[in-house]
Amino acid sequence: MPRLPSRSMINILTKEISGFLHSLIAYVVIGVFLVGIGMLVWVFPESNILDYGYADLGSFFSLVPFVLMFLIPAITMKMFAEERKTGTLEILMVKPVTTWSIVLGKYFAGLTLTIVALLPTLIYYYSTYQLASPVGNVDTAGIIGSYLGLILLATSFTAIGVLTSALTDSQVVAFIIAAFFSFLLFTGLNSLSGIDIWSDFSLFLSYLSLEYHYNAMSRGLLDSRDVVYFVSVDILLLFLTKLIVDWRR
Question: Has this prediction a pTM greater than 0.85?
Fold first, then answer.
């Protein structure tokens, strides 16, 4: 792994963020995310907090990963695919910039944009804090753990998105593949572990899923093993991305 931070990586990071925020799609994607998750938490009768009767953000943290499966691929789909299609990636690769700087610059740009999209949801915590009876009667530790788990989950979804963008010249294909693999790694493995054919291997298969470790952190249990798991997944995916970029250069 390269030394962090490097000047070239920071330049790529700021370039990606600036390019995204200067496009209309950025505000459409983030706006749709906030409106959609807001309606799920506060409006739709099946999941809204007001009908639930308790000042609890459990519905938000159980639903938001599925929304991130589409938000993050929408952010990352163009990072390599568009540059390769327009030929600007080839220009970047001949400059004195390491492949790791390119990959990490794009990765941290996608992660930063995702965190920016999540920041307005902190108002949900304030709202439930005020709505609780008595005021402040909420599981603050559990909410903090859930947000930390959500950020770690976002790191893995972002790594998946950057990897799939490096695989293809098509943004649409990159989006679809990223959404599929995000779903597979989050809940697909956990669902597959419930099939009887796996026997003793089913617990291990469940442990490999992102959902298993995200749910553990959502209960407010900050276990270093969950953090190590997410970091390991990120490093593996980013390493694969580097290999693909080097192979296709």
Answer: yes
